[in-house]
Amino acid sequence: MDFSIRAANVEDCKDIARMIVELAEYEKLADHVKVTQRDLEQDGFSKNPFFHGIIAEVPEQHKTKEGKGIGKALMSKVAQLGMAAGCNQLNFTVLDWNKSSLDFYLSQGCFDITANMGYHYMRCEGEALEHLAQP
Asked: Would the pTM of this model clear 0.85, i.e. be above it?
């Protein structure tokens, strides 16, 4: 498959927002999506961005539903960028029912820290976050 990977830019925010919604729908979490295109534009492309992104571009004549090799190439690029920035590990979450993704990550040498190291991934949001922020 022919594709290229490049840094995301502000013009990509509409597609990024769409893909976030599509992923949330796939993961049965669409009602949790609060981010908007405008949020992405502000948070990712202001003077001090909260995030950076990369985009895989596929020429129109090569577009298919399968996307063979794109996920691996994107993960590889994230690992390259992280290592270049001095990172020594990559952490991410996977839903327990997403066996194809779990199998892919395991095949890449990743391991499940919740099973092997006893970690729990914790979240604080909403009122609890506001309460925690109180001095």
From this structure: no
